[in-house]
Specification:
The chain is α/β, with parallel strands linked by helices and 129 residues long. It has a 5-stranded parallel sheet with strand order 1-3-5-6-7, with helices on one face. A two-stranded parallel ribbon has the order 2-4. Helix 1 links the parallel strand 5 and strand 6. The longest helix has 10 residues. The chain is globular and about 35 Å long. The chain starts with 10 loop residues before the first strand and ends with a helix. The mean pLDDT is 76.
């Protein structure tokens, strides 16, 4: 998926894709802020053992993003939060261990714009397919 293909998409939900390492891949030479005016407001990432990023290695400037839900994505590092601007507060829901690891690796994060809510792994993740 590229930033230009997002259009009016409001939610991205990816579940049980064991080989996925990224969600949105910026096109070569593209403006990294091309996604800023998309309608994306929610990301749901579940059981993605090899997922490393949401938006390549760049910050995700996504003005309408307000909710990120993450479970069983131990390798995921979210540069997302460093690029979000505006008055919106981002709610992150997921596992405490993942959040604690994320905070340790991103000590400069603006915690005023982020609210974490610990939530158990949903039953559809913990049960076998």
């Amino acid at each position: 998926m590229t930033p230009n293909s997002l259009g009016n998409l409001e939610k991205i939900c990816v579940r049980r894709c064991e080989n996925m390492v990224g969600i949105i891949q910026p096109a070569e030479g593209a403006n990294p802020r091309a996604i800023a005016h998309s309608s994306l407001s929610e990301l749901v990432l579940v059981d993605l053992q090899n997922l490393r990023s949401v938006y390549g290695r760049q910050e995700l400037h996504c003005e309408k993003l307000t909710k990120i839900r993450v479970w069983n994505c131990g390798l995921l590092r979210l540069p997302v939060l460093q690029g979000v601007r505006g008055d919106n507060v981002i709610e992150i829901e997921g596992e405490r261990k993942w959040w604690d690891d994320f905070r340790r690796q991103n000590p400069g994060i603006d915690i005023c714009s982020v609210r974490f809510k610990e939530a158990p792994v949903p039953s559809e993740v913990s049960s076998s397919p």
